[in-house]
Amino acid sequence: GELVAIKEFLNPSAKVSLSRSTLVKMKQLRDMQHNNVNTILGACIQKDRIRLVTLYCTKGSLQDVLENDNIKLDNSFKLSIATDIARGLHYIHGSPILFHGNLKSSNVVIDSRWVCKLTDFGGFHVKFVSANGEAGEYAEYSKLLWTAPEHLRGNKLGSVKGDIYSYGMILQEIILRGLPFCTTNYTPKGLIQIIDMVIARVDPPFRPQIPDGECSDDMLRLMQKCWRHDPLSRPTTQVIQKKLVAMNNGRSINIMDNMLKMMEKYANDLEDLVADRTRELNEEKKKTDELLYRMLPRIVAEQLKKGQTVTAESFEQVTIFFSDIVGFTALAASSTPLQVVSLLNDLYTCFDNVADMYDVYKVETIGDAYMVVSGLPIRNGNRHAGEVATFALDLLHCVRNFQIPHIPGKQLQLRIGLHSGPCVAGVVGLKMPRYCLFGDTVNYASRMESSGLGISLR
């Protein structure tokens, strides 16, 4: 099956059989075949109404497309639409129908390939009344915005030159993406005044205003020629097509070519967008990795990222460092919690900066206790003891120069314990996994620290 569109007209004569002239007209409409004219497949005649059957165009009318802000139309696309309409109008003007007679954006439909097709031509809107027409004075006057002045005064049937005037109004719609005279904020009463001013023989004639920069000078001049008050001075469809080709630098205008260009541009923009998003993703991944490497050794973190199980590992020789602050309990009791947090943050930031200069790994901090190790997770031969001892001496020097923010005159005293020996290290837990050390070496280092003196190391 094939989707079709049906438009109903009331049959004022209330006769099932139509006159010979009407049947001839319908035969002429049926015989019209052009890429930019919507094909009439047939008609269904009943006593009180006539139904015209045409091909269904999936994109709706040009008016629908222009009013949809989600559909982006560049200048090439607008030029293609204008060219399609001019081609269809040129075909109609050379056919037995002679003219469209009801040209406006709602009577230009767009198929799935974005080809514009003229519809509702042949004078049926004059001889028969639309069965689903809009009601109200405003709706009736709004239909006249596309009508040429000479037809507003009398002949409502239409003419070739009347179509050219209507085409100029559609060009304004394409450029501004609004109804004719859309730059004039008119009410229903104001709409009547607009129609009266269009009819009036004033110089210059009353026409839509195009803001500067909305279109090229060539397009503006073409619209103004189509709007001329004297019908004989308006251009023909052949001249219009030549002007449009000239605006495209002499190249033939094809809406499918423009669609392909738009798709290519969209693909390129999409590639750029994907590249930008990928770069942002990589930057965020780096930040995440850096945070993870601060919590776990790099080699362990890489294993966890790959989904591998991290097994505990034995190290024959490492050196473990413990330190705490002498009199920290009394200091904390005389300080607020925020002051304690600020103190420890400043102190451990200082310790971390020193640790970055040595081959040591910070294991954890618990309260005022600070623990590091050298020789794991990456073995460093016999250098582990020297690395930790030199690190400890540097910390003692830093503490001597450290000022407690809320007690400037008080001197911190750091107690340090070291021990070298074997150790087992592994990741403990699934939620917030920790890299922990086990063995007698850990216990010995802790006891060396707890039994030591302030501003010294054992």
TrEMBL record:
> Is this entry keyworded Zinc-finger?
no
Localization (cell): Membrane
Keywords in UniProt for this one?
Answer: cGMP biosynthesis, Coiled coil, Glycoprotein, GTP-binding, Lyase, Membrane, Nucleotide-binding, Receptor, Signal, Transmembrane, Transmembrane helix
Q: Which residues form the Protein kinase domain?
A: 1-247
**Which parts of the sequence belong to the Guanylate cyclase domain?**
319-449
What reaction does this enzyme carry out catalytically?
Answer: GTP = 3',5'-cyclic GMP + diphosphate
What EC numbers are recorded for this enzyme? 4.6.1.2
Predominant location: membrane
Enzyme class name: lyase
| Entry-linked Pfam families | Guanylate_cyc (PF00211), HNOBA (PF07701), PK_Tyr_Ser-Thr (PF07714)
**Molecular function terms, GO-annotated:** ATP binding; GTP binding; guanylate cyclase activity; peptide receptor activity; protein kinase activity
Which InterPro entries does UniProt cross-reference here?
A: A/G_cyclase (IPR001054), A/G_cyclase_CS (IPR018297), Cyclic_nucleotide_synthase (IPR050401), HNOB_dom_associated (IPR011645), Kinase-like_dom_sf (IPR011009), Nucleotide_cyclase (IPR029787), Prot_kinase_dom (IPR000719), Ser-Thr/Tyr_kinase_cat_dom (IPR001245)
Q: Do the record's keywords include Isomerase?
A: no
* Topological type in the membrane: Single-pass type I membrane protein
Q: Which GO terms describe its cellular component?
A: plasma membrane
Q: Which GO terms describe its biological process?
A: cGMP biosynthetic process; intracellular signal transduction; receptor guanylyl cyclase signaling pathway
Coiled-coil spans are 256-287
Top-rank taxon of the source lineage equals Eukaryota
Belongs to which family? Belongs to the adenylyl cyclase class-4/guanylyl cyclase family.
The entry's protein name is: Guanylate cyclase
Q: Which organism is it from?
A: Trichoplax adhaerens
Q: What is the lineage of its organism?
A: Eukaryota, Metazoa, Placozoa, Uniplacotomia, Trichoplacea
